[in-house]
């Protein structure tokens, strides 16, 4: 009998009037925090109530991008149970309609959230009353970051036109898929498939398709269930710091590679050109989007934001 389809890792969390986006990158230096902050500032300027969450546990910097030097409470106080609600850590930013939850690096082991603290964090995020919730997650494939990314609708991965960035982004997405598959396998107690998923997918030389071919030979009903589970995962892609014509072609090529080897369909949102004024605005603790609104990079971000909005309609 074909099993009933449920999703143990709840990755579709938002109502039609509320969106949750997580912004991640396979490696550091892609500009994911810049993209997250810029999108938040833009949506706030469009009369949206926006909450920006710095969930880069251990290396927060969104407060710097927004020109906020001091705040009484931050995410660490929530995880340490020094406040009862995540709402208590909200900080008003210089931008009307935009509030920030500042990350922390002052409380030890914040990056190593236990399972129950993570579920509590996710539950509080879902309960926020806001039009847009944007979560800046850390780099790497720790379960916390994978789950924050899967939580979104959709998750947004930011890459640079560099081989290491592209490779790490691919492995990050693959790790998300493995996380989803394992969640389903554990949920349905398909224990005989646990070994197969480890053998077939965690070897980087093998594709997700090879896993499904193995499962189809064992049980087509479960293969269909797992396939539909992965198809619900629809990440978005942004290429940042593009300099050459070839860089501008990277996004579509990456989407094709993802579909070919990872089964899923990713959506390419756009390319943001490299602009030295980004670094200048960071040094001056000023918003790039408001300081250089007519720059090509700012225009690209506004175009990306428009596509994001349409994606959630």
Give a structural overview.
The protein has one domain: P-loop containing nucleotide triphosphate hydrolases (Rossmann fold). It contains 14 helices and 8 strands. It has helices spanning about 30-45, 60-65, 75-80, 115-125, 145-150, 165-185, 190-200, 210-215, 220-230, 245-250, 250-260, 275-285, 290, 295-310, and strands at about 20-25, 50-55, 90, 100, 130-135, 155-160, 235-240, 265-275. Strands 3-4-2-5-1-6-7-8 form an 8-stranded mixed sheet, with helices on both faces. Helix 1 packs across helix 14, helix 5 crosses helix 6 (about 165-185) and helix 7 (about 190-200) runs antiparallel to helix 8. The protein is globular, with a radius of gyration of 19 Å. Mean pLDDT is about 85; it is low at about 1-10 and about 10-15.
Gist of the model:
With 313 residues, the protein is of the alpha/beta class. The protein contains 14 helices and eight strands.
Q: What is the percentage of strand-forming residues?
A: 5-15%
Compressed to H and E, one letter per element, the order equals EHEHHEEHEHEHHHHEHHEHHH
The CATH homologous superfamily is called P-loop containing nucleotide triphosphate hydrolases
Radius of gyration equals: 19 Å
How far the N terminus sits from the C terminus, by CA atoms, comes to: 36 Å
Report the helical percentage. 40-55%
Q: Domains counted in the coordinates: how many?
A: 1
Unreliable stretches (pLDDT < 50, length at least 5) are 1-8, 11-16
- Biggest sheet details: 8 strands, mixed
In the sheet with the most strands, the strands line up as 3-4-2-5-1-6-7-8
Helix and strand content put the structural class at: alpha/beta
Please tally the β strands and state the result.
8
CATH architecture: 3-Layer(aba) Sandwich
Please report the number of helical segments. 14
Q: Whole-number average pLDDT?
A: 84
CATH topology: Rossmann fold
* CATH class identity: Alpha Beta
